[in-house]
Design a protein that fits this description.
heterodimer, A: 145 residues, five-stranded parallel β-sheet, B: 753 residues, alpha+beta, Beta-Lactamase, 5 domains, 18 strands, CheY-like_superfamily (chain A), TCS_response_regulator (chain A)
Chain lengths: 145, 753
């Protein structure tokens, strides 16, 4: 029996503070997954499709889970979601949206596009940690072969 | 039997009778003596000492009569006398023993004398032999006066034959019963019922009739009265039958008069009809043949004469022997016979119909009985006469009507002929005049007032009309011109006004658009700003917490306190931004209206509320309606109202229940909680933005929720209000139209196409 390898996670987030908070949330929860971070929508697609700076496949492994912020410059999260969910090869990758408000209108649209889950980015850090933990639990139970 | 022998017998009877009378007297005295012995004795002693001798005494004793016993011893003084006395007693005894028939005759006599019936004995020649006191009373003569007189003296001449035949029957030995009239000394007549039988002497020879009489005068009178009454009734009945068979007034009058005469013995009856117009009684019929013409011609004024008075006073009047009264009126031309009158009014339903007068040309007076009978008859007659009166009125009315119809028909016929003449005369002229008017009017009808009607050379009744029409055409011409001028002015004014209104409307639209756009921009800005503000806020909050977790040892107590305050402030700010986001989100989106089950909306709303184990939301999805709404916004409404109910709630078991009912055209929802309640003075304030009723910290919340709810409900054309009891709970009511306005419009347009 081979020891289970934690999957790689791609965080798509433009706000440095949020990146820092997310990273800390992973650390606080003792998650050993490798967290790759890209700063906008276009970059996230480069990462997935090994384009431009990520042309070397080693620099950008296929993520097991994508945490996708909605409000970003250049290409927003909704657009990224649409692209990936319409690609037969990548649409199986679970995508979790990161939203600012639980009443965000974009939430509905992302559901229509086939998002797997979403996390409201709370101001209270502890709640955010709990949300990440929930995602982790979900991921572990649904590990892809 | 010879007259001689009869007289003898008669005489012997007389003796017998006088003996009997004496004996009767003696018996009476004997009876007295037993009752008043002492007094009698005293009296007789004085009498006896002078009056009685022994011989007398002995005769009294031997004859069986009373004798004065007290004198007995005084008168007897020797044996011889005693022997005679004894002999006398022996004879007395014998006699008394042999005379019982004498005693019975005595009894018989008593009966005869005291009987109520009269008893008469008369011989074959009707000479009275004997009568009792009743007969004396009947005839007014004493017994002594009667005996020896002929019975015929007391019988009225018309019954002599009857008596004779009855006596003959007696001789034949017959007993019979018959009625006989006897005349009193004073002339009064007594009707008697006689039972008569023949009497025979010891030799079997008829010597007398014995008659027993019963006075039946009263009985007879009563019988006759009954008979008379029955005849009256018969007449009345007959009259009513006859009267009911005719309606002719004169015939009725004649019948009534005749029957009245039959009913009450008189010399005639006159029947009058009352003429209310002339106030006179008009004779209709009379049975008085005496001065018939005058009687029928004389109309009696009301109140005059016996008839006039009876009618005027409406009561029956008897006037007996009127010619004794010099003031008594008489029929003009009538003869002055002794006259008795009885007059009655004829009344029906209180109305005077006429009168009837009975007349007797003798001194035989009308009596009360006649008056009553006549009154009764008059009542009946009045009924019959009323019918004939009505019939006459009807007939008269009919005749009048027929005549009037005839007259009117003739009148109309005449009028029609005249009218036809006039009509044809005028027709020509009217045609001519109309032909003048027509061309002008045709022009007028199309709005051309230039032509007037040409007037005819000679004036007639149309001239005025034509002149009037011409004036009218002139007026119309003027008014038409004036109107055209005015409407032109008005049109110009209108054009200007329309221009101004259009301009203003455009301005207003633009202003509205700008305002709306500005409001939208503002909402957008609020949304974006509050959204964007969250990112740095998250950083501030996150790093504050990191600082606290990683470095709180180094911060010291005061540093830790500041940091805790900082973290709290960020949390509150997040809530504020969340609410702001929510309201702006609601207003900036143009949602889609769809029909959603209210139960689904509530289910979604509850998902947004963090329900703990101490809170319940009660609702029955099946009892809630389907509402046309913006789903997203309506979820926000329910979310806010539910979370309010749970948030402002101090009960250990918090509950919110949601129900709905229909009112006209609307659904009314009720969201009831068992929370702290709201004071009445705050009912309006709670719906204003950023209004909080409580100190920050007591209850969470930003004061945005209810203002948003109100806005959404009003957007949906609904209404929201609150009722509450402090400490008990609050009920929020809101209404939603059953149909959306747009739906209605769509439905209407569909219907109209």
């Amino acid at each position: 029996m081979v020891e289970k390898q934690p999957i790689d996670i791609l965080l798509v987030e433009d706000d440095e503070n949020d990146i820092l908070i997310t990273k800390r949330a992973f650390t606080k929860h003792n998650l050993s997954n490798h967290l790759y971070v890209v700063r906008d929508g276009e970059e996230s697609l480069d990462f997935v499709y090994h384009r431009n700076q990520y042309s070397d496949p080693a620099s950008a492994p296929r993520p097991g889970l994508i945490l996708l912020d909605i409000n970003m410059p250049k290409m927003n999260g909704i657009e990224v979601l649409r692209r990936l969910k319409s690609d037969p090869e990548y649409k199986v990758i679970p995508i979790v949206m990161l939203t600012t408000s639980k009443r965000d209108q974009d939430k509905i649209e992302s559901y229509n596009l086939g998002v797997n889950s979403y996390i409201i980015k709370p101001v209270d850090f502890n709640k955010f940690v709990d949300a990440i933990a929930t995602i982790n639990l979900y991921w572990e139970l649904n590990e892809l072969p | 039997m010879s007259a001689e022998a009869d007289r003898e017998k008669h005489a012997s009877l007389n003796i017998k009778r006088s003996n009997a009378r004496r004996k009767e007297n003696d018996v009476g005295r004997k009876r007295l003596s037993t009752g008043k012995a002492a007094t009698d004795k005293g009296k007789k002693k004085t009498q006896g000492s002078t009056a009685y001798k022994l011989e007398d005494l002995l005769e009294l004793i031997s004859s069986g009569k009373d004798y004065p016993a007290s004198h007995l011893m005084e008168l007897v003084s020797n044996d011889g006398e005693i022997r005679r006395l004894i002999e006398a007693f022996r004879i007395r005894e014998e006699r008394l023993r042999s005379e019982p028939e004498l005693e019975s005759e005595e009894l018989y006599r008593t009966l005869v004398n005291t009987a109520q019936e009269g008893i008469i004995l008369d011989d074959p020649d009707d000479i009275i032999l004997f009568t009792n006191p009743t007969v004396s009373a009947l005839l007014g003569y004493s017994q002594e006066e009667l005996v020896g007189r002929s019975l015929f003296d007391f019988v009225p001449p018309e019954e002599t034959e009857l008596l004779r035949s009855q006596t003959a029957r007696r001789m034949e030995g017959e007993t019979s019963r018959y009625e006989l009239t006897l005349v009193h000394k004073e002339g009064m007549r007594h009707r008697t019922l006689v039972t008569a039988a023949p009497l025979y002497d010891s030799g079997g020879k008829f010597y007398a009739s014995m008659a027993i009489l019963t006075d039946i005068t009263e009985l007879k009178r009563a019988e006759e009265e009954i008979k008379r009454r029955s005849e009256e009734l018969g007449t009345l009945f007959k009259t009513s039958t006859e009267l009911s068979s005719t309606l002719d007034e004169e015939e009725v009058g004649r019948l009534i008069s005749e029957r009245a005469k039959d009913l009450i013995p008189s010399d005639g009856c006159t029947f009058y009809r009352f003429d209310s117009f002339s106030e006179k009684l008009v004779p209709i019929a009379t049975t008085v043949m005496e001065s018939y013409e005058q009687r029928m011609a004389y109309e009696v004024p009301l109140g005059e004469g016996v008839t006039g008075r009876a009618a005027a006073e409406r009561r029956p009047i008897i006037a007996n022997n009127i010619h004794k009264d010099p003031k008594a009126p008489r029929v003009p031309g009538g003869k002055d016979l002794p006259t008795c009158l009885l007059s009655v009014p004829l009344l029906a339903r209180g109305e005077l119909l006429g009168a009837m007068t009975l007349l007797r040309n003798s001194q035989e007076e009308f009596e009360e009985h006649d008056l009553q009978l006549f009154t009764h008859f008059a009542r009946q007659a009045a009924g019959a006469f009323a019918n004939s009166y009505l019939f006459r009125k009807l007939r008269e009315f009919n005749e009048t009507l027929e005549r009037k119809v005839g007259e009117r028909t003739a009148e109309l016929e005449r009028a029609k002929v005249e009218l036809e003449e006039v009509h044809s005369r005028y027709k020509q002229r009217v045609t001519d005049r109309l032909s003048r008017i027509a061309p002008a009017m045709e022009k007028v009808s199309v709005g051309d007032f230039s032509k007037n009607i040409p007037l005819p050379e000679e004036e007639d009744e149309f001239t005025e009309l034509l002149v009037g029409l011409n004036l009218m055409i002139d007026d119309l011409r003027f008014m038409f011109e004036e109107n055209r001028r005015r409407s032109e002015e008005l049109r110009q004014l209108n054009e200007n006004l329309e221009q101004i209104v259009g301009q203003r409307t455009a301005e207003l639209k633009e202003s509205n658009r700008k305002t709306a756009a500005f409001a939208r921009e503002l909402e957008e800005m609020i949304y974006v700003t509050s959204h964007d503000l969250k990112t740095p806020l998250r950083a501030i909050s996150g790093f504050s917490q990191f600082l606290y977790v990683d470095y709180h040892d180094k911060l010291g107590r005061e540093g830790q306190l500041y940091l805790t305050r900082l973290i709290d402030a960020t949390k509150r700010m997040e809530r504020l931004l969340d609410d702001l986001l929510a309201t702006s989100a609601v207003s900036r989106t143009e949602g889609v209206f769809e029909r959603v089950p209210a139960g689904d909306l509530i289910k979604e709303a509850i998902k947004l509320v963090n329900l703990d184990e101490n809170a319940d939301v009660v609702y029955d999805p099946d009892a809630l309606p389907l509402v046309p709404c913006d789903r997203f916004k309506m979820i926000e409404v329910f979310y806010n109202l539910i979370s309010n109910g749970l948030k402002f709630n101090d009960k250990p078991r918090k509950q919110v229940s949601i129900t709905a009912k229909t009112s006209v055209g609307f659904w009314e929802f009720m969201i009831a909680d068992n929370g702290i309640g709201i004071e009445k003075r705050h009912y309006e304030r709670i719906f204003k933005i950023f209004q909080r009723l409580h100190q920050r910290g007591a209850y969470e919340g930003t004061g945005v929720g209810l203002s948003m709810v109100k806005r959404v409900i009003e957007e949906h054309n609904g209404r929201i209000w609150v009722e509450s009891h402090l400490g008990v709970g609050t009920i929020f009511h809101f209404t939603l139209p059953v149909q959306r306005e747009e739906d209605d419009k769509a439905a209407n347009s569909e219907r109209s196409t």
